[in-house]
Input
Amino acid sequence: MDTFTVYPAIDVREGAVVRLRQGDYGQETRYPADPFALAAQYARAGARWLHLVDLDAARAGGYTLAPLLRRLKAETPLQVQTGGGVRAEADVDALLEAGADRVVVGSLAVKEPGRVAAWVARYGAARLTLALDTRRDAQGRWRLPVHGWTEEGGKELDVLAAAYDEVGLRHLLCTDISRDGMLSGPNIDLYRYLCQRFPRLAVQASGGARDLADVTAAREAGCGGIVLGKALLDGKLDLGEALAEGAPC
Output
């Protein structure tokens, strides 16, 4: 990829900054930081983008973070990609109106690919990030759970990524669910495969990043960026160093 973007992530549930283990709502760690204050801290460290997730909406629908999003856009220089509960065009319109630079579409991108492919044409590839979050099954196939990773979506990663690549998708966020929140390292083999098979996609690595070496590995695998969550919150990775590692030489 020509550019590599480091995306500090803030996941919000019931107004609090949280991290889940492997997408399990029953395995939650809450952090004392206020979501806006944390985002502002990331901006001061030099972040250009923020990955903001409404975990309540991801499971139940109905995006709740519009006031936070508006404040972020008014009071910080951050560009924001955000999602959770996007089920219809009206949801996309509402997030864009609230200031989202990119709207993240997850479950619907798996359940209704024809509909979401039309959105790529309507809104433009620069305004959408599709989250194809994946879990490997017993047969070695990369399956795509939906609704906050609580239900099987009936699709395979390879097939769906190819379909979206054909209609001009640009930004693909892929989380290996088994790595998410585990600080076990991202699945670099998976990302290298995706980047080689779909060179037009800017793949965002997500799940498991723990240190600067993981940022380097994602960049060298060809990813367009990496999402950093728990490692930043737990103080295991310095955002400034990660941003410097991701910057072009």
